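Hi F.,

I've been meaning to write this up properly since the lab meeting, where we talked about keeping a consistent format for the predictions we share between groups. The idea is simple: the sequence comes first, exactly as it goes in, then the structure tokens exactly as they come out, then a line or two of notes. No screenshots and no reformatting. I'm using this chain as the first example so we have something concrete to point to.
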Amino acid sequence: MPSTIWSGAIAFGLVTIPIKVSAAAESHSVSFHQYHLEDMGRVRTRKVCEVDGRELANDEISRGYEISRDQIVEVTDADLADMPLPTAKAIEIVAFVPAESIDPIRISDSYYLAADGAVATKPYVLLRRALERSRKVAIAQFAWHGRQRLGLLSLKDSALVLHAMKWPDEVRDPAELAPRKVDVDEAEIERAMQLMDSMAADDVSGYRDEYRAALEKTIEAKAHGQKPPQPAEEPEGGGQIMDLMAALEQSVESARDSRGEGAGEGATVHDMPKKKAPAKTAKKTAAKKTAGRKPRSA
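Output, unedited:
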């Protein structure tokens, strides 16, 4: 059972749903420590006061806001907890919108919301079924970790999920990154669509973190004094394909071959032009000179 990281309630109009919040995902990344190369001593981060140079314990440290070089305002946990915010103890639903209207780049961390106690079960199920039938998501406001945040409430199986969201002004404008205008041929678009079709999938649960697996094998080998596994040598290719259409055609064929599919009936994929094999040179048979043999007459 995941640990509870926050307790509060969902405010749905005049309906209050007590909930417990837990993280919806966990990291499986391999973590490292820092060591001194000379003696392999552990390198640690220490909190040191800039005035007296003394290392401080956590109970000696507070947070503050620097107004000027000589004026710092201390902000305690009690100050943050007592702020007059309607979302300080609740996840307040403010609107319901179509899921497709949400820009995915605004979605951040996700959390599971569990009903807290028997009294919360019925309103929890009520909100869940209302979201199912409406096929919409809820937009909510909540305050965690010293700041007010925007969130999105959706469903995963039978559970409510809260996705933290970035505020609109936190998303950078991608206009300056857009490429210059270029002409794309209709045939190239069609071939790109064929490539997308050949790579279509209904389930992506089979993908695994190959980097982590390779890293674990490397660590295991070095721990036993063995040489880490080396990557397999890639076969020599025939050079890069610079033509966009040719690259698309070859990509479609490769994707279909990897799935065991042929070109199929009605396919419009053209074969890549193959290099002509050099003609085999006939071996010259040395004529045996026979003494006294006369040449044939024409």
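Notes:
Residues 6-28+83-170 form a domain with the Ku70; Chain: A; Domain 2 fold (CATH 2.40.290.10).
The chain has five helices and eleven strands.

If this format works for you, I'll send the rest the same way.

G.
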